[in-house]
Amino acid sequence: MSQTEVTPTLAPQAPERVFRRTPEIEIVEDDQALWISAELPGVVPGDVEVSVEDGVLTLHGRVRQGSNGHATVVTEFARQLTLREPTRYDGERIEAVMRHGVLELRIPKHERAKRRQVPIAVH
Questions:
Q1: 2-111 has which fold?
Q2: pTM, to two decimals
């Protein structure tokens, strides 16, 4: 993850330093789906949200790192991806899996958008 902005924040009960980061993302498309991998080291699945609205896929989450009695360091990340042709993808059937610090998403294509072989008739 590359660090993009630093915003220190102090809360009354527990001071925190907040760092904003942008996850490294890889996108691959095949005939069946759009595949997205996001490197999220130190993130537990419960601290990341994936949403889709109006053709925009959003990843958002937080990582809390050790509290030694003084302050908790929080790393926030958010990334939005605009799907070029949102009607090609089925946002209702997105699959998400977290493995070894990598979030893997599969966004299936609608049947009508999948590539298909057209038979050629011989007369």
A1: Immunoglobulin-like (2.60.40)
A2: 0.68
